[in-house]
Design goal:
By secondary structure, the protein is an alpha+beta fold. It is built from seven helices and 13 strands. One of its GO terms (molecular function) is metal ion binding.
Length: 213
């Protein structure tokens, strides 16, 4: 199986930034570079990976704060999220001040994503699902051969994403989980934006917010 990944928690929010790559070509993408860019680049160099892209699930500061710098310094294209998060990208400098992060640069994604899109790194193709609720432009990346989903802040082990931020919507979030994530299958292991990995099946059984859905 050529698809591989490593998750590196970054920032004071311990956000799960994932570096994903094709083991055949060693081409890599970084999902949600919220910060600690030097650490992410050091990992890629140590593994002999060629960073080619940045993929974003959504544009909150802990997920997107390092994106502008990384794209500018390394000449990397930015893919995602959905255009519904444009206002969050425009507000990154304000977010950085509000939460005590290093100054964050705004940016214009090279490609906005919509439900049903795909993204490719090396010979690996991941499916895109638009999963609003935590933010209006939130997307999820699903790699079907490894049965792995990178879900950002939609779903956590034992919890779900917050919906009290601007344009958050609880009912919409629950719909995203039940209509966009569950059909992928109970056996799918997901990498959340914070905390430990879990499976969709485990969350359907035990997560108090979506148990039995």
């Amino acid at each position: 199986m050529p698809f591989r990944y490593q998750t590196l928690p970054v920032t004071t929010f311990h956000q799960n930034c994932s570096i994903v790559w094709c083991d055949e070509t060693r081409e890599a993408a970084v999902i949600d570079p919220g910060g600690e860019i030097d650490r992410l680049l050091a990992f890629a160099e140590a593994e002999g990976l060629a960073l080619k892209q940045i993929w974003l699930t959504h544009a909150h500061i802990d997920h997107a704060g390092g994106t502008g710098q990384l794209a500018r310094e390394r000449g990397l294209p930015i893919t995602g999220p959905h255009e519904g998060d444009r206002f969050w990208i425009d507000g990154l400098p304000q977010q950085s001040r509000m939460f005590g992060f290093p100054p964050a640069e705004t940016f214009e994604p090279d490609r906005w994503l919509v439900d049903g899109d795909t993204v490719t790194v090396g010979r690996c193709t991941l499916q895109v699902r638009h999963c609003p609720g935590h933010t209006p432009g939130h997307v999820v990346f699903f790699e079907p051969t490894s049965r792995r989903a990178f879900v950002g802040d939609v779903l956590f082990a034992g919890s779900i994403g917050r919906t009290d931020f601007p344009q958050g919507d609880f009912d919409q979030l629950i719909g995203s989980i039940t209509q966009r994530l569950w059909p992928m299958g109970d056996d799918v292991t997901f990498i959340p934006g914070h905390g430990d990995e879990s499976t969709f099946g485990e969350e359907r059984r035990s997560n108090p917010y979506v148990r039995g859905t």
